[in-house]
Specification:
Radius of gyration: 27 Å
CATH superfamily of the largest domain: HUPs
Strand order of the largest sheet: 4-3-9-10
Largest sheet: 4 strands, parallel
Bound molecules: adenosine monophosphate, zinc ion
CATH architecture of the largest domain: 3-Layer(aba) Sandwich
Oligomer: single chain
Number of domains: 3
Distance between the termini: 58 Å
Structural class: alpha/beta
Low-confidence stretches: none
CATH class of the largest domain: Alpha Beta
Number of strands: 14
Number of helices: 15
Mean pLDDT: 93
Length: 462
């Protein structure tokens, strides 16, 4: 299997360090708001990677953190903590906010068939691990204390910038000058922040009441669960120049190793050709798309159609096209499902090989979808159906559960009124009346089926 490694800027042959099990860390959400479809694209990428590795026979130990403290408004050290800001604006407890948005995030993953990684640790549950990490860095002489926190001394790590290819002096020239007197170098970054009184999430530490910085969270949690060196680290491309450079600097300084052998990054989703962000107010959530009549699978299909290293421009025309394709794919699939005929083994093997070649070529999922489409145009066969379901282990498009959308039939008001009356009678356990009204409905041409909290009406075909 070949995977693109941001570190070497090439596709490299991939094999896990310890034989069959891939140890993988993914930067997870900061849970101060709903995840938007751009964020979710990055998790669809993580999921495709997991599913493809499994399809190719590997096992996975995946860790995705939940950032519930310490991520400041900018990825470097400016601005308020995002959790604290949300708590202040909504007049709520930050723990309550974190719990709510974490719950919604996991629901979104479920809707999109994104497999939940094996471990999903929360930053606030690992304060002691982070503190120990920072203490280790101080002991190594690569961190120093200022009036407002503990900072990493970038001069201790001349290789800083290797992942992004941005040299430190170029970064310095481009960076805006921060008002932070205590820092020795503008690119030195916060490992730990001293908490002002109003910062609700704070802990006692050797440096007084304080809280961890965002970068140390990922370094401490990945090390705890996956060790000093693991196989793959994922995130969105925005993490390359700051967050992941900082993770590498911290790990190199403490353990002497770059923590991940492969650094993989999902490209951004744009909206109408421009930047999408919660702060610009041009984002959508999955719930909003559902409210507009799209299935989560339409959005997933939309993501699968573009390679993860290509920018993907979100438009409703694009989503509509994905919807049409997905439904068409489903109805083609149902023809094969209903078929009793078989397909010659060599044809099946040909498609299997082509599919696997696509998947193992740095997750060429659009190519693999192409294989699926070509295959579904073969004469109807139960073998093609079975293979499409097998391919769906990678796609995660719920193909085994696919059902054609039932046409909504308008129920006339008088029929609805009788059905409501019958529902009331059932609630009152008036079975005689209920039966009588069932017959009345039948006479009007409608069959009624009882559901848990209501009923379903279908026209009787004469
Ligand atoms: P956050 O919750 O802000 O930390 O972001 C969660 C994930 O979404 C990170 O991995 C980001 O890299 C990613 N992300 C943010 N915006 C976009 C976007 N427009 N397209 C794709 N991924 C994004
Ligand atoms: Zn991270």
């Amino acid at each position: 299997m070949k995977l693109y490694n941001t570190l070497s800027r090439t596709k490299e042959d991939f094999a896990p360090m310890d034989g069959k099990r891939v140890r993988m860390y993914s930067c997870g959400p900061t849970v101060y708001n709903y995840a938007h479809i751009g964020n979710l694209r990055t998790y669809v990428f993580m999921d495709l990677l997991r599913r493809s590795l499994k399809y190719e026979g590997f096992k996975i130990k995946g860790v995705m953190n939940i950032t519930d403290v310490g991520h400041l408004l900018s990825d470097s050290d400016d601005g308020e903590d995002k959790m604290q800001k949300a708590a202040r604006e909504q007049n709520k407890d930050p723990y309550e906010i974190a719990a709510y948005y974490t719950g919604v995030f996991f629901e979104d993953l479920k809707k999109l068939n994104i497999e939940r990684p094996e471990l999903t640790p929360k930053a606030t549950d690992h304060i002691a691990d982070m503190e120990k990490y920072v203490q280790g860095l101080i002991e190594k002489g690569v961190a120093y204390e200022t009036a407002d926190g503990i900072y990493f001394d970038i001069s201790a790590f001349p290789e800083y910038g290797k992942l992004s290819g941005i040299k430190l002096d170029e970064q310095q020239a481009g960076a805006r000058v921060e008002v932070n007197d205590g820092k020795r170098h503008p690119a030195d970054f916060a490992l730990w922040k001293k908490a002002p009184k109003e910062h609700i999430m704070q802990w006692d530490s050797p440096w007084g009441k304080s809280y961890p910085g965002w970068h140390i969270e990922c370094s401490a949690m990945s090390r705890k669960y996956l060790g000093d060196i693991f196989d793959i680290h994922t995130g969105g491309v925005d993490h390359i120049p700051i967050h992941h450079e900082n993770e590498i600097a911290q790990s190199q300084a403490l353990t002497g190793h770059n923590p991940a052998r492969f650094w993989m990054h999902g490209e951004f989703m744009l909206v109408d050709g421009g930047k999408m962000s919660k702060s610009l107010g041009n984002t959508y959530t999955i719930a909003q798309l559902e409210g507009m009549g799209y299935k989560p699978m339409h959005f997933r299909y939309f993501c699968l159609n573009a390679h993860y290293r290509k920018k993907l421009n979100f438009t409703f025309e694009g989503l509509d096209a994905a919807k049409v394709s997905y439904e068409r794919l489903g109805s083609l699939l149902l023809k094969h499902k209903a078929a009793a005929a078989a397909t010659p083994l060599e044809i099946i093997e040909k498609y299997k090989k082509e599919f696997s070649e696509n998947v193992s070529d740095d997750l060429n999922v659009p190519g693999a979808l192409g294989t699926l489409w070509t295959m579904l145009k073969e004469p109807a066969s139960k073998d093609i159906y079975a293979l499409a379901i097998e391919f769906d282990r990678v796609f995660g498009l719920s193909l085994a559960e696919y059902e054609e959308e039932k046409e909504e039939v308008a129920v006339p008001d008088d029929v609805r009124a009788v059905a409501d009356e019958r529902f009331e009678a059932r609630k009152n356990k008036d079975w005689a009346k209920s039966d009588e009204l069932r017959e009345k409905l039948a006479a009007l041409g409608w069959a009624v089926k009882d559901a848990k909290d209501g009923y379903e009406l279908t026209p009787i075909n004469k």
